[in-house]
UniProtKB/TrEMBL annotation, chains A, B:
Protein name: DNA-binding transcriptional regulator, Lrp family
PANTHER family recorded: LEUCINE-RESPONSIVE REGULATORY PROTEIN, TRANSCRIPTIONAL REGULATOR AZLB
Organism from which the protein derives: Halopenitus malekzadehii
Domain HTH asnC-type residue range list: 9-70
Keywords: DNA-binding, Transcription, Transcription regulation
InterPro entries: ArsR-like_HTH (IPR011991), AsnC-type_HTH_dom (IPR000485), Dimeric_a/b-barrel (IPR011008), Tscrpt_reg_AsnC-like (IPR019888), Tscrpt_reg_AsnC/Lrp_C (IPR019887), WH-like_DNA-bd_sf (IPR036388), WH_DNA-bd_sf (IPR036390)
Gene3D superfamilies membership: 3.30.70.920, Winged helix-like DNA-binding domain superfamily/Winged helix DNA-binding domain
Cellular-component GO terms for this entry: cytosol
GO biological process: response to amino acid
Molecular function via GO: sequence-specific DNA binding
Pfam families listed in its UniProt record: AsnC_trans_reg, HTH_24
Length: 169, 169
DNA sequence: AATGAAATCGACCAGCA
DNA sequence: TGCTGGTCGATTTCATT
């Protein structure tokens, strides 16, 4: 319904998206100056990109450290291989408070879970809750010493080959 | 300078943050109605939270699928254990276009890298670029079949214990 | 820390290339 | 379809409590 890998953009769209992806708190004036486009045109394009689902939402980026969430762990979760379970286990894992992201992978280990909490006791609680999920077999966790979040910014992070595939010539 | 794990919030702050974290595209009217607070007060609190660095930025959430970025991989990277290198290797890995996130962990494997691209050839390019980084020893990649992003939303995702530590009684 | 009034900015409409 | 210009309503700012 919203998927569109073949949705084409022009250079202006890409530039606009790059701007608002890193900071939506700029005024239309600023954008129209940077892009050499009228305010109305910028507004028009933004609305189109929202309607198309390219811009999913506008959100406040909160600093986890401001909440004391400075402990991150990666947990590898293997499950008992009974068909159909995997789908629900994934959402169950994601439903655990403190779990940030769940990757379902091919390989020996079935899930990789990223969780972020304040201290060890909370981390223990998270892991215990994961183990308690029906179908979860074994878990193995590693603490994250440091993380480099290069890019939640999709546009800035596009490989060159990807970028050229998107812009109409 | 901006870190503050002991910065305290009240219930109103938490509620406000929960709202704007999931959607900043709401009007002040809506917020002030939901929170039973005057528009100006909402605005005042938002500014305070921005200045305090709790709200790091306001950004447009783009859908990677709209750019054809539907291939995700987790790559475990082990490095030659020479002191000091690790820091720069992390940022080098994060600098590779297509790499979304880098976790530096304790354990046999030193880094876990999340990358997102359009197709296999781009994935190959990403991995080759990682291998070429000075100090990188070995890599092992797994494709992600599915991902459940439960919470980039920090507030919604707080463990109960974490929440009670933040709100002043 | 919260309020209300004044200046500023963004959203929408009708028309045009 | 993509853009322009102008109007109205909303938001930001500031002086005041």
């Amino acid at each position: 319904m919203s998927n569109s890998s073949d949705g084409r953009f022009d250079e202006m769209d890409i530039e606009l998206l790059r701007c608002v992806e890193s900071d939506f708190d700029v005024s239309l004036d600023t954008l129209s100056q940077q892009l050499d486009l009228s305010k109305s045109a910028v507004h028009y394009r933004l609305n189109k990109l929202k309607d198309a689902g390219v811009i999913r939402s506008v959100t406040a980026d909160l600093d986890p450290l401001a909440f004391g969430l400075d402990m991150v762990a990666l947990t590898e979760v293997s499950v008992t291989h009974e068909q159909g379970y995997s789908d629900t286990i994934g959402t169950d894992l994601a439903g655990v408070k403190g779990v940030e992201q769940v990757y379902y992978t091919m390989g020996d280990v079935d899930f990789v879970v990223v969780s972020r909490v304040q201290d060890r006791s909370q981390m223990n609680a998270v892991i215990e809750e994961m183990v308690a999920i029906d179908g979860v077999n074994e878990t193995s966790s590693r603490f994250v010493m440091d993380e480099v979040t290069s890019g939640t910014d999709v546009v800035d992070n596009l490989p060159d080959a990807a970028r050229s595939k998107l812009v109409e010539e």
